[in-house]
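Database export, one record per block. Field names are fixed; values are copied verbatim from the stored entry.
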Amino acid sequence: MFKEKFKTNSAVIGSWLQIPAPSIAEIAAQQGIDWIAVDMEHTEISYETLADIFRALNGSKTSPLVRVRTNNALDIRRALDVGAEGIIVPLVHSAEEAERAVSYCKYPPEGVRGYAFCRANNWGDDFDNYVKEANHKTAVYVMAESREAVENIESILKVEGIDGVFIGPYDLSASYGVVGQTGHSLVKKGCDIILEACKAHGKIAGIHMVIPDENAVRENIKKGFRLIAVGIDTLFLINGFKEVKKLGE
């Protein structure tokens, strides 16, 4: 279970998947990474493909997560029904939005998630056990991607059911008027505010390091980030093919 990984590891490291290809998830899982987040916000990945991606992780130790398209009940419910162990909700700017995200992830009385026979409960064969444990086992992360979220981080973290906050550095940079400058002092300060607030509230602080950098990853672990996404499948391919091209120059 994804949430159990934090009990033994100081940092839980995974990556981002944007290409609708189960084989990529299978290759990643073979390398033993902790988790894969399937990005449904910025891609054409369908729920049918999502199910196949999760099937590719069967039997591995790699946990399936989803960044959903929007903060709404249907998107979140469908991702969970397909088998996501954790949900990453984009563009959460306030405590009210965080409360909605939690409610969509939890069965009543803690939330409003609808009941159904689905892949997550083996099409009903394990319905009773799944429903009994789902609220506890499902990880809920909200993305802080704006100046407003930074300003409201204390109230966001007080929302019952939030496991942590995942920083979206590129959208955060845009909200401060320095698009793409993820190393800008304003962005770094915003990240530090979120990190320290997570520590104070006993929540997991997460960040996506889009450009893989071993030293930067180790520095963020040292600072206290515990959920770290490194790279994107598309970027790994781009960089790999660039290296191939260089061989012919």
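Remark 1: The chain has a mean pLDDT of 95.
Remark 2: The chain has one domain: 2-247.
End of record.
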